[in-house]
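Weekly sync notes, structure subgroup
Attendees: PM, AL, DS (notes)

Item 1: joint prediction request from the bench team. They want all two components modeled as one assembly rather than separately. Inputs as received:
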Amino acid sequence: MFNLSQYCVFAGIVAVALALTCYVLAFASDRVAQARTALAAESPGGETVTITLGDAPSGGVIVFGALTMWLALGFLSAALVFRSFATGHGPFANMYEFSIAFAWGALLVNGYFLRRYRQWAVSVIVLPLALALLLYSTTVSSEVEPLVPALQNNLLLTVHVATAMIAYGAFAFGFAAAFLYLLQSDDRRRLLPKRELLDDISYRATLVGFPFLTLTIVLGAIWADIAWGKYWSWDPKESASLVTWIVCCAYLHTRSTRGWRGRRAALMLMLVFVATLFTFYGNLFFGGLHSYG
Amino acid sequence: MSQTVYAPPRPALPRRPAAGLRRPATPPHVWIFRRLTSMRTALVLLFVIGLLTLAGTLLTQVPDAVKGNHAAYAEWLNTVRPRYGGWTDILDKLGLFSVFSSLWFTGAVLLLTASVIACSVRRLPGLWRTATRPRMVMTEAFFERAPHRVRIASQKDPGAALAALGAAFRKNRFRIATERHGEDVHVCADRFRWAPFGRIAIHVSFIVILIGAVLTGTGGFRDESFAVPIGSRVNVGHGTGLAVEAKSFVDSYYPSGPPRNYASRLVLYRDGTRVTAQDARVNHPARYDGITFYQSFFGPAVVMRASTGDGRVIFNQGVPLPYSSRDERDVIGRFVLPRQGLTAFVVSPASGATDPGIPTGETQLEVYRTGDNAPAGIRVLAPGRPATIAGVDFTFLREGEFTGLIVAHDPGAIIVWIGSALLVLGLFTVFFFPHRRVRAVIRRGAGGSEIAVGAIERRNAAFPAQFEHLVKDIRRAVSPGAKPEKGGTAHV
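Output from the run, pasted for the record:
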């Protein structure tokens, strides 16, 4: 099971890289097409440059990219399941497992929005993030360490961290859409969704992430009460997650009541993602009660 | 909050009164209420709390055990001085080493609470009105300009069209209310109309959680250093009438070295009567009558006996040794003989360490009379050999172990859980089941009736698809057999 899980992670990395390549190719071919169109418009008579169907961004490449993205999600899901069988607990107990789970969360949310909004362009940012997390996972130990007594609560370990990964994945997706919003400065980039749509889907991603982050914090408090005898200890990871929650809260309120949309909202989402990374990696620097892995 | 009516933009009011007009003075309570309900105030407070929490995450925070003890605090401050250098005293003065109990943090949280209460009070009537008494009759302008709108001609008469329209709405899980206005029938269709109250639940949950936290801080008790020697019984105190006896303690390890489990077998007594026996393990605390016993630490103990000159035994139980000497060479414990006015300190070499003054397998006893700084006697005791200090015979019987528990009664926890449940339910309700309101009007038209449908749902990329789906169902219901007209649905 352990080896099977490792193979699935490897296959997942290859699939993510392949999906990313497809999307990059789609972008590149679109640029070529745009350049040729411009050239054709400039050339007198226009007969020297012909534009064929193949010059346009290939729908096939995009479809293939989406398929490999789903395949990557499948491989990572299988890797996590096999890892659970190998370890006997939810695959969320050290940095190796967290990284794969974070990448899985990002792909899951990406898949959800891909299905719902049919916007593949955001994947161009989400996939490198997932790839970076997966590559990072190869640099830390993948050994199965036995659980210390404080972590021996299979239900809460699984649910608390799984909800965190969905929340982090949603914030990663929100960040990606917000980043594209900032790139799509004047709605001129053909392959990128319109700014209004990017603004909306980044908001929708936060609407998924925020309740899941809240659930993560509440489940964490329940677990802390059982394992540490106190539902809140101002542990650095607790505080960092609260900072993320507060920034997210501010984003939602500025948007709904003060009309912060577009550029300002996108910048807020950048901040949400920075806070998410700070929460995710914070325990590496601060120690505290969450100093596992 | 979803809008209930379509109102064309109003002309902007001048920000300042025209010259010559005096604005009436705002009474102070109105001013305060306005400030509190202002989103700007709430956002500034959120920003302050976020910043302070960040500071609390980045800066080392003083441990609870050191708080309130000046000497210990000064010593602790010296341990962080190399890290923060000249900033140490400034950060200390600003209270940033105990951010979460600082005036800044508490003040900001209290103000935010007031702001949340004020906002909820202000919002509630509007939410109630929207959910229960929506404006029913919409103007023609609404159906002409609503961001999502469609007009459908039906061969059915208005009564039949209304029935068909209602069925289509119900199929899409909308609840409808109707009102006749002259010959026209106005329809207000809602889905998840109570969902906006989730917002109130979220804001109320914040207050509930805070009340729970205050109760945790002020009510109940929490003893983090409750050590029970194995085979001994220790009173819990705090008016509980409970005593804990530790029958056994087990610490097990994985073959590779890391700890696998810590567990104590506990027997609880109330006023001398055995009431329950439970295991306390990490992640599985023992609970009785609202009091929780968490497995927390463990260590060595010694079993001591003390008797008076006439042979009467006045102390016979284990003494935990939870403290370490400064050089960490010895472990130290203490017991009191109140009637004799004596306090005895027991010092034994720590596990794996040696102390030239105390041979392995023996223990040192230092006995003090209450109020004296000089010891009444210091002896090194071999097992089973008594020594007399201050008229009391002390015997070191054997070495043992103690189990360390956190004993807590937290009346606030349940309130926090209620608040948390409210918060999570509220959030999932608001974000996953958003209120949708679609309006329609049925008019008698040539050959049947004419139906106009409209909805205001701006900046929601998912809504057009939902609206189109709804419209398809309405079309099918009110004019069966008719081919859908192209471009019949408008989205702006």
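Discussion: Chain A is about 75% helix and 0% strand.
Action: AL to compare against the crosslinking data before next sync.
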